[in-house]
Structure of Glucose-6-phosphate 1-epimerase:
Amino acid sequence: MGVEQNGKTIVLKLASGASAEIYLFGATVTSWIVDGKERMFLSSKSSLDSTKAIRGGIPIVFPIFGPPPSSPPEYAALKQHGFVRTQDWTLDSIIMDRDEGVSVRLTSPPPPSEFNHKFTLSYVVTLTKHQLSTDVHINNTGNEDFIFQVLLHNYLAVPDVKKITITGLDKGIEFFDKAAGGKMGTWQGGELKITQETDRVMWKVPSQEIKVDDGEGSGFLVKFRGFEDCTIWNPQEKSGKNMADMEENGWDRYICIEPGYVREFKSIKAGEEFLGQQVLTVL
Ligand SMILES: O=P(O)(O)OC[C@H]1O[C@@H](O)[C@H](O)[C@@H](O)[C@@H]1O
């Protein structure tokens, strides 16, 4: 029980058998086991040698989501989804180590020199019997405002994505449909099924609670606070087969329900803190 440190990874363990593995590279959660079952998808073709972002688990997206914008220059120079998913993070502290829960705080290293904004970024991962909570704390430690986007890119393992049902998306939400070439749409309410490539940035989700029924008696509840938007992504074969680090048919074994602040850039004032929380529960 407790917290094991194994060089590149930290493993949280509970007496119930629940565990979570976090790579220091990107502070990426790569495994979450509940009731003897792996709940995170991790592609068998993912590189785990710190050369490329990990394909699976929960990569952290910051300070941009998606491809870089054309300006300002320090943002235009960034790679897709920003730099923190490919940085070596540090274990800062063990916050809690008890029978009912284990919690650790990780901190990111300084940003690349061209990203000339002062901030601290810490990530608190808490494991309880059926839940995994991941909280991002961003503090503006400089004297000027700066802007960012942030998102927790979870890959939730499911037996067959074509059998899942997603609910909790409020009727009337606007979404940016990347799979449809970047069109805006309005969600009509009800259930969302994955029958084709899906890449939707749902703007301002009032419920902040999305349920995934895996069609085989289990699933997930994804709750969030601080984050307002949620991207729902599954590439299916059409785009999945073009991803070098995606295993064959991997696209059928996960769904990404990604809480974030991504519909626009959020401005953070000098001295201000942003807290984005994700709570994943196994149903
Ligand atoms: O291949 P990456 O950089 O990890 O991104 C994966 C996907 O991440 C999703 O969040 C985006 O909405 C998709 O458009 C993107 O393809």
The two ends are 23 Å apart (CA to CA). The chain is about 5% helix and 45% strand. The pocket of 6-O-phosphono-beta-D-glucopyranose is lined by residues 53, 80-81, 153, 178, 199, 231, 233, 258 (CB under 6 Å).
